[in-house]
Amino acid sequence: MKVLAAMSGGVDSAVAAARAVDAGHEVVGVHLALSRMPGTLRTGSRGCCTIEDSSDAWRACEKLGIPFYVWDFSERFKADVVDDFIAEYSAGRTPNPCMRCNEKIKFEALLDKAIALGFDAVATGHYAKVTENDDGTRELHRAATWTKDQSYVLGVLNAEQIAHCMFPLGETPSKELVREEAAERGISVAKKPDSHDICFIPDGDTRGWLAEQIDMEPGAIVDAEGTQIGEHEGSQAYTVGQRRGLKLGRPAPDGKPRFVLEIRPKENTVVAGPKELLDIDLITGIRLSWAGTPVPQAETGEWFQIELQIRAHADPVPAQARVEYADQAPRLVVELAEPLQGVAPGQTAVMYQGTRVLGQSTIDTARSRHRTDVPAVS
Fold first, then answer.
1. Position 190 in a domain
2. Minimal CB count within 10 Å: which of 3, 116, 160, 366?
3. pLDDT at position 377 over 50
4. Is the pTM of this model over 0.85?
5. CA–CA separation, 260 vs 283, rounded Å?
6. How far apart are CA 247 and CA 85, in angstroms?
7. 12 is in an annotated binding site
């Protein structure tokens, strides 16, 4: 097969490309330029897609003896990831830019271009697996090792995209083995630290960055009964579950810390309260997509059993789900068997059955049976 290897400049993508070469595929490496700031440099494990990363990707391809290209997706990245991130926070939601990047850039824009150029598949360094059924349909599954599994951030992939995906690291037991393999192959990034945080906010100061992008106005922090207990400098800079930075002038009656329960952007209000009110057991979701063939109940509106995961490294929880159709747009409804805390609108809810990724939805509402100040979802 003709395979396009997405080269981030890290050890995982380098070894994934090397394994694709070993498998006998015709491999071409490509690094995505997502920023137009030529002075951008990596700082330790902060940031990615930098000049340093591009150079590391080139050196890995040179070592593997495969062609290397840089594709400029910076305009698409700004529109589909950065601008979306700002818009979501402006609306009082907490987005996951890595999900949007995988959905819109790494697998939509990249894969579309790869197929147009005659490639059969795109290989990445994600820890996940793709299996093929007897009828030729393909499914996305968790990696062999739970601690390295990255299937959550791939939950946005659809059936057509999964059909052209290759994840050579899916069966690898540990990152240490990948680093050892890179060292044995003479790949220079064998000991390079993993990147973390939001790539376009490399200093990690999300609140400070948002303050430069969004016009924020001070407003009230209220408790669940609506009584003002403090002031904020801009509701968009807060997220559900947050404890630090509230600067409340009135202590709680029981003396316990309070957490952000809800953001109300139209009122420019932040609702804060005790930790137990963070418990939620009912979620609705929009932008529903299926990672392969949808479950039969998707068309009938019947309940089906799932495990739900709301963060990349969170444990899944048992739940039941069904699909409603409002104005022809599918809406996911999930009832959790046990409560979760700190669930915020804008986060991505990924559905599993066993190791299989069923699909995902962007959380629209998250409600708790303990909350009496907000309406329940019918």
1. no
2. 116
3. no
4. yes
5. 18
6. 26
7. yes
